[in-house]
Amino acid sequence: MSERKTIKKWFWVWDFDKEERWLNEMALEGWVLDGVGWCTYRFKRCEPGEYTVRLEMRPYDEGYVSFMEESGAEFIGRMIMWIYFRKKAADGAFDIYSDIDSKIAHLDRIGRMLAIIGGLNLFIGLLNSFQGSPVGWLNLVCATVLMYGLGRIHGKKESLEFDRQLRE
Amino acid sequence: MIDSIALTESTYYILLSLVSPQHGYGIMQQAEELSKGRVRLAAGTLYGALSAMVDKGWIEQLPVESGSRKKEYQLTQRGRVILEKEVARLRELADNGERILGKAQEA
Q1: What is the ipTM of this complex?
Q2: From CA A82, how far away is CA B38, in angstroms rounded?
């Protein structure tokens, strides 16, 4: 039975690259991601640097997961709309996206999700506030945070689009 | 518009790899081999590109053989025409580059 540990940690959706960097730092220290849950990361012992870990937002699609597995990646798990993969470093470089267009498409997916949930919160928050509900402000706070996130995603997208003008 | 389309590098190598039937991982390997290791298609990018190209009718998915989960794809006639036009376009780019840069070096 290999050694295991669980870490509770929170990442904002728009910090998904930070989350991925952290997971790879863990892998370099000899802990590879082995399962995910709500703010929960389960690790198991591995050789330091044995794995590369990648994550992305994508509605679960069995065909996609088996496509990834065909290319040598291992499906770790999913949390709501995020899916996690790992691949042995010895089996070659591992990235999910290799051109600017597909990175932009990924950011668009995240942005759309934030916009929908943010818009819904705004609507419910306003409705509740007008009806004098004591919790309407909560939705408005959520909406504000999500809109901030949308701005962050948009910023990342803009810098990619700037690159895109001159190269692919 | 469709006549003067410039393909992305990923699209170009995916189409080239599909002159004969190939499954996803085979496309990744072939693109890397053809470009001597320079072009590495990542699986997420490839997956999106394949479904877009099927929608456009440039490639088609072959019937899945029983017992195999791997989907195979192949270039269509339409895809071949697009690829041939792209080769002509790239040749023009390369010829102009060599001609003008060559001239500049002589001067």
Answers
A1: 0.85
A2: 30
CATH second-level architecture of B2-106?
Answer: Orthogonal Bundle (1.10)
Per-residue pLDDT of A119-137, as tens digits, reads 999 999 999 988 888 888 8
Amino acid at B60: E
Amino acid A23 reads: L
Q: Residue B67 pLDDT > 80, yes or no?
A: no
d(CA A76, CA B103): 56
**Residues of chain A contacting B28 with CB distance shorter than 8 Å:** 71
- Contact, A168 vs B11, CB < 8 A? no
The pLDDT assigned to A92 comes to: 87
Nearest residue to B87 via CA among B31, B13, B1: B13
Rounded to whole angstroms, the Cα distance separating A9 from A82 reads 15
**What does the domain layout of chain A look like in residue ranges?**
4-91, 100-164
B23, B45, B70: residue with CB nearest A97:
B45
* DSSP element (H, E) containing B93: helix B77-106
